[in-house]
Amino acid sequence: MSTLTITSLSKSFDKGKSFALEDVTFTLKTGNVCAIVGESGSGKTTLVRLIAGLERPDDGCIEINDTVVASLDTFVQPEKRKIGLVFQEYALFPHLTILDNVLYGISKVKNKKQRALEMLDLVGLQNLENRYPHQLSGGQQQRVALARALAPKPALLILDEPFSNLDAMLRAQLRNEVFAIIKKTEVTVLFVTHDTQDALSVADEILILQNGKVVQKDVAANLYVKPNTLYVASLFGNTIQINKNLQQAFRCPLNETCCYAIRNEKIKVNSAASESNCEYVTKAQVVKKIELGDAVQLALKLESGEQLTVMTRDKNISDTIYVGFNAADILRFESEP
Ligand SMILES: Nc1ncnc2c1ncn2[C@@H]1O[C@H](COP(=O)(O)OP(=O)(O)OP(=O)(O)O)[C@@H](O)[C@H]1O
What is the DSSP letter of 192? Predict the structure, then answer.
């Protein structure tokens, strides 16, 4: 069963000259966490605002639990859409206590105080209900925002860059805590982030937006093994495009109309040609070595004159080496990026 169904959704802010979102179609299964990943300007916020009812689409349809909430002739008001929202800014009312902040969204619910206290319990803030937002840390405030969003039992919870305000250590810790809480509630989640690590850590599926279009929606393992484009491949690991010069350097006969790439970790480096078991190999000079903890980054000049940067764990690698890869590890895309 799907909680969210998006069909051919488009939105332009300049009367169709360009599209912030263009022909976006996907579904989100009930109880799943889907991360929306894309660089700045790719349309993540526009998508969230359309789903939440803060913008109207130019075309397409949005259904929540099989009810149309937005289309060319339907527009359900945001407060009627059963969506819980958590943003980067915690958006708590500074003059209300933590408990009153959570109560705010459930004024019409029976036993609302009990429900609010249960939510605060769920997010681990049971003893702080009489405090005001400024008396809490950033991470605690974000958990209050989560409790408030979950209190009305939303059909869909949207988290829009909820951890961007926090430093890296706290961010990973809070992310894991928040998603552990979310998993207990079994709510369906759309999680917007520009951080692929965030997405990989907690999402069942990841949807990649580029220039307002969906380039791929898949489970993390497939995004790594079968990326649709070079852009997707580069989001999930260091990737080198095998351009025409590299194809010649490695003497690999590839189809000219396609685009090819190789993951950095699939490139093998050996001190002797006899040790290299790769199908495509070339000789190279090490121009520069940079030690990065347990790995060494090598700037190479290939026999053909091409330059290439690779990684190795062999700290005693010689200055003349053999570098290569196998056909099975080559990523292939239909068109040039
Ligand atoms: N209200 C608006 N008026 C005009 N253009 C807009 C408006 N909102 C968004 N855009 C444009 O739509 C495109 C998508 O923007 P959007 O904010 O959805 O991207 P984003 O992926 O959320 O970016 P970021 O990660 O920086 O928040 C951008 O080109 C942006 O300039």
Answer: E
Helix (H) or strand (E) holding 199: helix 196-202
Pocket mutation for ligand 1, best pick of 36, 39, 46, 158 (most atoms within 8 Å of C-beta): 46
CA of 38 to the centre of ligand 1 (A): 12
288 and 301 Cβ atoms separated by less than 8 Å: no
> Taking the complete model, does pTM exceed 0.80, yes or no?
yes
* Minimal-distance CA residue to ligand 1 atom 6: 13
Please, what CATH class does the domain formed by 239-333 belong to?
Answer: mainly beta
CB 251, CB 304: distance < 8 Å? no
Q: What is the CATH number of domain 2-235?
A: 3.40.50.300
Ligand 1 pocket, residues with Cβ under 6 angstroms: 13, 20, 38, 40-46, 194
Task: Assign 3-state DSSP to the chain and report helix, strand, coil percentages, each to 5.
Answer: 30, 35, 40
> DSSP assignment, residue 254?
-
Domain span(s) for CATH 3.40.50.300 in the chain: 2-235
Q: pLDDT per residue over 18-58, tens digit each?
A: 999 999 999 999 999 999 999 999 999 999 999 999 999 99
Q: Does the complex come out with an ipTM higher than 0.90? A: yes
